[in-house]
Amino acid sequence: MFNKKNNLAVLILAAGKGTRMKSRVTKVLHELRGAPLLSYPIGLAVSLGAKEIIVVAGKNKKAIINFVSSRYEQKNIKVIEQRKLLGTADAVSSSMVRLGRGISDLLVLYGDQPLLSLKTALSLLAAHYRNRSVCTLLTAKIEDAAGYGRIIRNPEGNIIKICEDADLSFQDAGINEVNAGSCIFKKDELAKALKLIRPDNKKKEYYLTEAIGLLAEAGKNISSVYPKEQYEVLGINSRYDLMNLENILNKEAIKRLLDKGVTILSPETTFIDYNVKIGRDTLIKPFVYIGGNVSIGKNCVVGPFCHIRGGSKINDNSVVGSFAEVNRSFIGKNCRIKHFSYLGDARLGRDVNIGAGTVTANFDGKNKNITKIGDKAFIGSDSILIAPVKVGKSSVTGAGSVITKGKDIPDKAIALGVPAKIYAK
């Protein structure tokens, strides 16, 4: 691991127009697994303990400022504007004057490259400091390198330049080692190189990659590392790319859970969002969607055709069956929610049975309200519980009953009718 005493700044390039997204939403604010793309490199920069974090925006500056200020109030993240999109070197130059005193190294990340892992970033930094390099690049070898800048090495294997795809010679077109984007520079050496960059390319832009050739010509030490996983270098330029990364992350999430003893019968019809925890010997049946920050215990059965939405917790030995939806709810141990039910903002105790067609009506038009159901309660089919309401321990609601707002059912009672009347057991 690199020494955090080094004064590291992180620069996140996020000024691109994203025209291929065909959207009024700026590209870096499109969501991947429930979080905006820009949140991934920002989160990485925070995890690295960067002394400063700068986001370079373009005409999307206002949207990015709104996002950053709403999510990262305590992180001291600066957003600056690249007024004319003249290339990556121009974007970096625009930010250099904003760096505080004492910054020794600058890590460059990309707002549309969300899969770079903390392990790979730490490997990149460790190699940079260990080798005392002026620049350390993240590179990758891929079969289809079209569209990527190529890493050009001399016969001794040293990096001498990066050539953008549009400017490749016929001789270099077959190179499959590519520039993966992320890189770290000694700040002062980079500042010198930036002054020498000229737009001598087909796009007439100032390429940051030109700094590599200039540093190599000056005899500076340039090193490189490979990512821990090949997919980490993938960026997003289109909705197809976004879909592709969603699929990659879903497969990774499913593989991780399979390795931990979860049975998933149909991975191709199962979607598992970020930060999902599932216990050993739980069975996930086909056509299941599990949202972010969900926890499911051991020996549970989920599905088929059900939706566990974000923030829900399902405890051990419980069943959530066909066409059921659970939203922001706590389900105790040994509960049964077998068919066609919606539980929103519900709190279930142990050994609760939820009959087919049950609905906890949690929204009153202004607020989301909570339904509490005690241990061993039996909720009859087609019951509607209008929150806020409480059903006591070992109580029963009759089929088709409507339990109105505030009409709590005491322990060991029966509620029947529309609206329900309460009877002693």
Provide the descriptors you would attach to this structure in a database record:
425 residues, alpha/beta, acyltransferase, Spore Coat Polysaccharide Biosynthesis Protein SpsA, Chain A, 36 strands, Nucleotide-diphossugar_trans, multifunctional enzyme, eight-stranded parallel sheet, UDP N-Acetylglucosamine Acyltransferase, domain 1
Description:
One of its GO terms (cellular component) is cytoplasm. Residues 240-260 are annotated as: Linker. The active site is at residue 339. It is found in: Cytoplasm. One of its GO terms (molecular function) is UDP-N-acetylglucosamine diphosphorylase activity. The protein is of the alpha/beta class. It has two domains: 8-233, Spore Coat Polysaccharide Biosynthesis Protein SpsA, Chain A; 239-424, Hexapeptide repeat proteins (UDP N-Acetylglucosamine Acyltransferase, domain 1, 3 Solenoid), CATH 2.160.10.10. The strands form seven sheets. The chain has a ten-stranded mixed sheet, covered by helices on one side. An eight-stranded parallel sheet has the order 13-16-19-22-25-28-31-34. The protein has a seven-stranded mixed sheet with strand order 5-4-1-6-10-7-11, with helices on both faces. Helix 2 links the parallel strand 4 and strand 5. Helix 5 (187-194) crosses helix 6. The longest helix is centred in the middle third of the chain and has 21 residues, at 239-259. It is elongated, with a radius of gyration of 27 Å.
